[in-house]
């Protein structure tokens, strides 16, 4: 299976509509891949909080339309990263879109863990409440977004729902890049799954981005890692390695669930 992670540069001097057209072209350039992945909030910038409301769009808005057509034109499964979604009641969500090679919407995921510690995204956007998986021809994808990477219980839930490959778009800051790599590898090792983590390049509202998109195998090995700038990171991997790893080292069957809380 071939995956291409498009580490898009997001800078304030490029209008969202211009970037949308440019990224659609980048997706079309990946014809021949099985799966293409874009970063989180690439139309606005993950830290451009003041832009969320003004650039929010309905689920089937301009980004939806552009990415559906790009997926169809390229004939690829496309995780189109996430958008600031405004629902019919006016609430905002950080929502990921996944399209099939025919351009149909295969899944939408509203980010569950919102970053900001009582400010920024954490107060401006609502929280999702549902785990999302997507069945591709060769693997079952579990969908998560950026800050979700810090919460292992979400990924355990995705494993229980059948996930074998995690796709994680992000707008991760450079100052915490070590955490990005460490957490991606940890989620792969503990769940014996592939992790495809796609970040952004550039600067969001003055916050330099980490870049370094990464693909990790079920044993924690790094199959490919991008640099700091905009690039397409393409890697071939064998989804059957998940079942092989889980069979040879069956740690998941030893999970102990439902433990009581410590007594005080």
TrEMBL record:
One of its GO terms (molecular function) is acyltransferase activity. PROSITE patterns: CN_HYDROLASE (PS50263), UPF0012 (PS01227). The keyword Acyltransferase applies. Gene3D superfamilies: Carbon-nitrogen hydrolase. Residues 1-239 form the CN hydrolase domain. The keyword Transferase applies. Keywords: Acyltransferase, Transferase. Transmembrane segments: none annotated. Pfam families: CN_hydrolase (PF00795). InterPro entries: C-N_Hydrolase, C-N_Hydrolase_sf, UPF0012_CS. Belongs to the carbon-nitrogen hydrolase superfamily. NIT1/NIT2 family. This is Acyltransferase. It comes from Streptomyces toyocaensis. The lineage of its organism: Bacteria, Bacillati, Actinomycetota, Actinomycetes, Kitasatosporales.
């Amino acid at each position: 299976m071939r995956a291409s992670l498009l580490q898009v540069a997001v800078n304030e001097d490029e209008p969202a509509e211009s970037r949308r057209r440019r990224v659609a072209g980048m997706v079309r350039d990946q014809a021949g891949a099985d799966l293409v992945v874009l970063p989180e909030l690439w139309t606005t910038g993950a830290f451009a909080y003041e832009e969320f409301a003004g650039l929010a769009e309905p689920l089937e808005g301009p980004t939806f339309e552009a990415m559906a057509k790009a997926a169809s034109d390229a004939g690829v499964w496309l995780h189109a990263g996430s958008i600031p979604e405004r629902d019919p009641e006016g609430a905002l969500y950080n929502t990921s879109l996944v399209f099939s090679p025919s351009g149909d919407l295969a899944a939408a995921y509203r980010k569950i863990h919102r970053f900001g510690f009582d400010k920024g995204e954490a107060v401006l956007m609502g929280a999702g409440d549902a785990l999302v998986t997507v069945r591709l021809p060769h693997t079952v994808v579990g969908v998560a977004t950026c800050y979700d990477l810090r919460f292992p219980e979400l990924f355990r839930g995705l494993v229980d729902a059948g996930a074998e490959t995690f796709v994680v778009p992000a707008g991760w800051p450079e100052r915490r890049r070590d955490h990005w790599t460490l957490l991606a590898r940890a989620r792969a090792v503990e769940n014996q799954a592939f992790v495809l983590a796609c970040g952004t390049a550039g600067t969001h509202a003055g916050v330099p981005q980490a870049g370094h998109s990464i693909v990790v195998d079920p044993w924690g090995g790094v199959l490919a890692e991008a640099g700091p700038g905009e690039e397409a990171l393409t890697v071939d991997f064998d989804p059957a390695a998940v079942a092989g790893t889980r069979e040879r080292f069956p740690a998941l069957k030893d999970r102990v669930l439902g433990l009581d809380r410590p007594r005080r």
